[in-house]
Structure formats: C-alpha cells, structure tokens
Amino acid sequence: MVSATRESIKELTLALQQATSGDGKLAASYKNLHRGRPEFVSERFLKARENNVAKALKMILDSLHWRIANDIDSILSRPIGSKEIYDSILESQPIGMTGYCRKGRPVFAIGVGVNGFERVPTHKYIQTHIQINEYRDQVLLPNSSRKVGHFVGTCLKILDMSNLRLSTLSRIKVLTMISTIDDLNYPEKTDTYYIVNTPYIFQACWKVVKPLLHDRTKRKIRVLPGSGKEELLKIMDEDTLPHFCRTDSKHKDRPTETCFSPSHPFHMELWSYIKEQSCMSKCMAPSLQKSFHITVSQPREEIQTIEEQIQSSVAHFGDEGCSEGSSLSFSRLTMADNKDDDD
C-alpha cells in the first residue's frame, strides 16, 4: 500500500485551505469534516488515491460538494421518521456497536447474512447508514479519544455471514450504494473488516471477488475461521465481542437482545441524540419529519466489477437449481483462472 508522505499531506492541506477559503459553505463543510485535524483528512484521502495530491484534492472537493448538496452536516438533526420506522430499518439492516477494542476504536457488528432491505424505501437505509457514519465521527471517536488520551480516528467492523443466501446477494444494489458512499466520502475510516461465520456460498463468491479488489482493500479484510472468537480476543475484551462471535454453535443460546436490537444502548443513544439535535435546530417532530433522498455517485470501476461478478455468480447458482433452504453445491462454478486461495 502506498503511504501518504508528510510532504504530500502538507501540500494537500494547504491546497484545501486555499480552495475552501473563498466559499463560505465549502469552508464550513470542510471545518466540520476535519474537526480540528485537517492533516488526518488529508492523509486518509491521500491513501485512497495512492498519495496523488491532485487526485486526492479532487476527491475531497467532490466529497465536500456532495455533503453540501445533500445537507450531510445537519443529517444528525433530521430524524428518519418515527421510532417505529427506525426500528423497522434496524430489523432489516442489522448493525450495532458492541464497544471498543483495546486501542479505543469503536467495534461495529453487521449482520450481512440476514440483511433484508425490504421494510422501507432504499433511501431510508442510505440515510440511516450515513447517520451512523456521522455519529461515529462526530460523537463516538471524539469521546473515545478523550477517554484513552490519544487521537482515535478509525473503527473496526465485524461482518457476520451466518444465514447468507442467494436472496441476500440478489440485493447487492443497496450494498453497492452504501459501499460507494463510504468509498468516496469516508475513505480509510475502517482499519479492518473481520468476516466470520462464513458458509460455502460466501467462500465461493470470495474466490471470485478477491482478485478484483485493490491491494489496499484486500489488506483490510480478514476472513476468520468459525466465529473468529480466538483471533478477536487478541484485540478486544470478551464483553466487546458481538453475540455471533461468542460461540461456534449455530446460535442455540443466542440472547433475546443483541447489539442489533433497537433497544440496545447504542441505538437508544443514537436515537436520543438525533431527537435532541432535531429539537436544538428547531426541526419538526420525529413523527412528522420528512425524509430526504441522498445523491449517490456512480461507483468506481472496482466496485462496479465486483457487483457484476456477484450478480453473475448469483444467476449461475440460480441456473443450477439451488433453492433457498437447500444445501448449496457449487462444484460446477468455474474458478480455474483464480490462483488466489482464501485467507
């Protein structure tokens, strides 16, 4: 991976100051983005653009214009709707925050295998995802930095692939939109993606997708055996582990309330924060607040290619006559050209 050099960070930070100084909205959005650490923003975007200052500058400016056009800086004061709608989103898009690793980084858990994206319109899932991103950057990371006594600017994500089915992969469009938003506007905010509880359908798709990933992305992804508990305990305490990492069994003893539950402290605190911000900005009550649509840019070529490959694989599996509940067999999937083994 190409690192961001000190000289490039300094050059980009100066270029951004000059580019935003003559535009009030641009300057305000840039200030909200860097939150007192402009060099960290420069470093993140430089890493995403192979230390190319010109490309990183364009990427940041494009992101700032996206933030302004979609009013991202005030998204935490715009409730998604009623609490019932928010709960429906969480029930069909399982995500939660379980605590912090020993370095102070927030640990997010994502139930990829049980994503539904069917309860509400797509733009509400997008809005919720961005709100969690902004809450992480504006609240969780600053609070953690103060607590541990040093700057914390990134997080960890644990992806649970339990119950992954063809129907989940067929909804790749929504996942692509979310990935594109993160790729273009929140680069280098996740240090590592830990993938656990992988069924064979994931392993088959992973062999197709992995060679398409940029080396920078591949280094961030770790596919762990089983529930990943043994490896994850090296970087976090046991009470930070998500429920799906606590055992290698088929969740026979799964607690009734998990980090995905709308009543989990993280989601209750996030909802309360949005309501408070809404009142402070004199917005309408949550039950009457209208949602808004987020503009999503076209994904870069790497993400588009991955989406196409997954869709092709799903179609191929369907042609093989695989049913949702059956044991899937992909022995006829052609991977002879792929020389890259799983992690």
From TrEMBL:
InterPro entries: CRAL-TRIO_dom, CRAL-TRIO_dom_sf, CRAL/TRIO_N_dom_sf
CDD domains xref list: SEC14 (cd00170)
Residue intervals of the CRAL-TRIO domain: 85-242
Name listed for the protein in its UniProt record: CRAL-TRIO domain-containing protein
Organism of this sequence: Ceratopteris richardii (Triangle waterfern)
